[in-house]
Structure prediction request, 104 residues.
Amino acid sequence: MSFARQIEGGWRGVLLVAATSLYFLIFAQFAFLARLGRLGFGGSLNAMMGAMATGGILVSLLIPRLRLVPRPEVRLRLGFVLCAATAEARRPCCLSREPARARR
Prediction:
């Protein structure tokens, strides 16, 4: 494989990881933090965010070393499929409720 192809593949990987991270922040983490705030855990949101950051770092270091699925490209595709399935499973619930501000 040529050096230019390696660089191209590397940037493609960086963009895919960035897209996955953005997906997670928009659809999962912010919704989870908002839900915690509504449940009365507003004072401990900084601790929760710290715990989620620590867990995310530890898991991101651990997962590549697990060999449940030996090929990295298959692991990445599986991650995208799981993200899409999660978004699809959550969609009917989110669309059935309108925000409180919109009801006024």
